[in-house]
Amino acid sequence: MDTTEEVDDCISEFTCCITTAINLFTKVQLIKGSFRQLPQFILDKIKIKNRLRKLYKQTFYPPFKRKAYKLQKQIHKFIEDFDNNRWSETIQGINPEDNTLYDMNRKLSKKFIPTAPILDTDGMEYTPLGKANAFSYSLENSFQENPEPYCNSHINKVNLTINKYLGSLNTCSSPSIFSPQEVVNLIKKINLRKATGPNGVSNKALRILTLNAVTHLIKIFNKRLALHHFRAS
Predict the structure, then answer these.
(1) Which candidate, 81, 75, 79, 83, places its Cα nearest to that of 52?
(2) Is residue 139 within 8 Å of 43, Cβ to Cβ?
(3) How many Å separate Cα 205 from the centre of its chain?
(4) Tens digits of per-residue pLDDT, 156-165?
(5) Contact between 84 and 110 (Cβ < 8 Å)
(6) Percent residues over pLDDT 90 in the chain
(7) Phi-psi sector, 123: left (phi>0), alpha (psi -120 to 50), beta
(8) Which domain of life is it from (predicted)?
């Protein structure tokens, strides 16, 4: 990597390798059928159970664990009764005259064809709403108009100032390079729950980079600093 073009090509190739690895090794969770809408009282009990488990992990107070375990058994019983009642209502509502019997037989006999999830900037999307939002977000970013007003003189002034500043850096001494340990320490401090960037590489993927990948990333950083090359995107 001796020129800025080679640095840009190396960055694109490195990003492509990471995103390809993420897509190939991401576990696919197939959801069969529609989502089950539980009653509100069951959802409230689930919230209380989760709160008790969190309190037990923080305090290790045994009564919290016993209450959470007791609620878990109640929730399983309520969900089982709810599913049985809903199935009984469905069976009782079947009528050959309005084709409901045919529809039910078709649902039970037809082989389910799962729809694979798609990769969004925030991770994998499984639901139809999430997939629709991912497509709309991608199309919106692909077809954006230039913001108004569009002032050429202001843009030229900004570009002139930036080029003048970057040109003055050529006479400066060579910047200090990154060491592998510094980059590893920075990667360990990043927030795993933070949203991914436009390149689609999550922070969790950065955490599991191999030593060779980190070394290659350090070479890119150091070469960009040496060439004073900073892309806008």
Answers:
(1) 75
(2) no
(3) 11
(4) 898 899 888 8
(5) no
(6) 17
(7) left
(8) Eukaryota
**Structural domain boundaries, residue 73:** 40-109
Radius of gyration of the chain (CA): 28
Q: Rounded to a whole number, what is the distance in angstroms from the first to the last CA of the chain?
A: 19
**Residue with token string 């991914």:** 196
CB 88 within 8 A of CB 80: no
In a domain, 100, yes or no: yes
Q: What is the pLDDT of residue 30?
A: 59
DSSP 141-197: HHS-PPPSS--HHHHHHHHHHHHHHHHHGGGSPPPPPP-HHHHHHHHHHS-TTSPP-
Closest CA to 196 of 140, 124, 133: 124
Q: For 187-205, what is each residue's pLDDT tens digit?
A: 888 888 777 776 677 788 8
Is 123 a domain residue? no
